[in-house]
């Protein structure tokens, strides 16, 4: 990414009044990250969600200084990063409308493996929970999945350690910047995690592990994976929030049942009882539910169509054929077609039987 573009993205990311969804909307509508800060306020205000409050923060000069400082840190420490429109951005996250526009990474991360599961739960893991977690990952090892968690006490670090022991890639998603480590006692695991995977964070280098950051972190944990597994949880807790987010992304959620008298099984039992999670009793439940036991039939490289496509329709088809399911906003960016025009194109393609709409403003070819 060119220096000017990265500085613009950092500046946009730092704006207090703009979250990931609004940032993507700005990028889609303006068409260029740098141009956002050159555009007239009168033009930007026509974009839905961009009012005077947002514009005030968008052009806050302090954000320029902060972005330049973080850019210098990235250069000096050779920090790797991935932008949500780049090919090396995790594809599962790319399909989440509120995923970060920029992710910082460290270690030996490989996002080409599509067998990704998140394992989360209470910080007060029991001997039963620890045993189940270790056995689960050991039994799943033959399928070579990527194990994602939040590097916290309890279930999180248990999952990371079990992945390392079974020579599986593990991804630790942080709720702070790379200059911080929380909890500090887990510093001893940094090298082993980096050797077997690495760390991801959307937070700038000096960002502290604030309470609200953990909630933001949870959406990455839920969004980057194909399924989220809750090992143990009380009736309330961050892992249940992660489960809710995963459900909102239409991802599979699994929960390990426990005795009704066990405090840290109540959350899992409630998820199962309320049909918010599949009951998980062994690794085979995940293998079957996620179809890891089925060999995918080879597909023809190019789909033969019996309909004629316009130039723009062909652009849309090519993107969906190459990248699979995509969000409306992402298709707009990839094809360089305004959303108001794209909606009509997608409708025509649907009528021709070329593609079909999915929940959450996503589309895929038939």
Task: Explain this structure.
- With 366 residues, the chain is of the alpha/beta class.
- The protein folds into 3 domains: 75 residues, DNA polymerase, domain 1 (Orthogonal Bundle), CATH 1.10.150; 183 residues, Rossmann fold (3-Layer(aba) Sandwich), CATH 3.40.50; 55 residues, Orthogonal Bundle (Arc Repressor Mutant, subunit A), CATH 1.10.10.
- 45% of the residues lie in helices and 13% in strands.
- β5, α10 and β6 form a beta-alpha-beta unit.
- α2 packs parallel to α16, α8 runs parallel beside α9 and α11 crosses α12.
- About 3% of the residues have low confidence.
Question: Layout of SSEs?
Answer:
Layout: H1 3-14, H2 20-30, H3 33-36, H4 41-44, H5 52-58, H6 61-76, E1 80-83, H7 91-94, E2 102-107, E3 116-120, H8 127-140, E4 146-149, H9 155-165, E5 170-173, H10 190-196, E6 197-201, H11 211-223, E7 227-230, H12 238-248, E8 252-255, H13 266-273, E9 278-279, H14 283-289, H15 311-323, E10 326-327, H16 328-335, H17 339-351, E11 355-358, E12 362-365
Parallel strand pairs: 3-4, 3-7, 4-5, 5-6, 7-8, 8-9
Antiparallel strand pairs: 1-2, 2-6, 10-12, 11-12
Please tag this protein with its features:
366 residues, three-stranded antiparallel beta sheet, 45% helix, DNA polymerase, domain 1, Rossmann fold, nine-stranded mixed beta sheet, Arc Repressor Mutant, subunit A
